[in-house]
Amino acid sequence: KISCLDLFHNHGYKRRMKTSLSHILKMVLIGILLTLSALTADAADTWKGQVVSVIDGDTITVKHSDSPKKIRLYGIDAPEKQQPFGQDAYKFIFSKVNMKTVEVKPIKTEQYGRSMAYVYYGKDKNRKCLNEEILKAGLAWHYKDSSKDQNLADLEKEARTKKVGLWAPPIPPWEFRAGKTGGIKELHGNTATKVYHKASCKDYDCDNCTAIFKSNKEAEAAGYRPCGKCKPGK
Fold first, then answer.
1. Which pLDDT tens digit goes with each residue over 31-89?
2. Were 201 and a residue from 43, 103, 195, 197 both cysteine, which residue would form a disulfide, CB within 3.0 to 4.6 Å?
3. Rg of the Cα atoms in the chain
């Protein structure tokens, strides 16, 4: 004989099983939807626009949704304009994409809002990656601090082996900015945060870093405080 208590427990067990299966199915469905959403987001991240200006060898301005958007070429660092080969790098980028439609594939956003991206130009068989092409020309370094892209590293190595472009003598832009060529080491102050940075700091060239100082004393007299990351003056 089956007691009422047995029936009660049996019913409760089945109900719990049904609830568990329902929960599992919901979790699986959510996982599928999240995966599809991520794939769609990746595709949506890539966009096209016209290059309206070339700032230097690794930064361009592209029109996006009727607004200019500053794009830094991901994974590379070109010479500063006043540095040897700086003008060559600028002219190379200008000749390839100025006033042309490019495809922008954002990788990440810098602290101050500038997008770091792969940029593609040309169509079909002539489609090329601007980040790769400037490395092939020997007019930029693979910027290892921000990119682990092995392909970019290999392209830099190939250019070094061929001794094309800036590889004789090579002075990386981060060393140039740090004043290792004998120039005066300027400090850049962020007018928004009132924080100042030394030349080797990754925030040295931020969009708001327009205040220029010759010394820590001058910067602090103007109401600025030293960056806690790069610790200028130490």
1. 666 544 443 334 448 999 999 999 999 999 999 988 999 999 999 999 988 888 899 99
2. 197
3. 27
Residue 87 pLDDT: 93
Cβ burial of 142 (10 Å; 0-12, 13-18, 19+) is buried
Q: What distance in Å separates the CA atoms of residue 141 and residue 99, rounded to the nearest whole number? A: 25
Q: What does the alpha-carbon distance between residue 127 and residue 146 come to, in Å, rounded to a whole number?
A: 25
Q: Which residues contact 60 (CB under 8 A, 6 or more apart)?
A: 51, 53, 54, 70, 71, 73, 93, 97, 102, 119
| Active centre residues (catalytic) | 72, 80, 114
Of 2.60.120.380, 1.10.10.10, 2.60.40.790, 2.40.50.90, which CATH number belongs to 47-162?
2.40.50.90
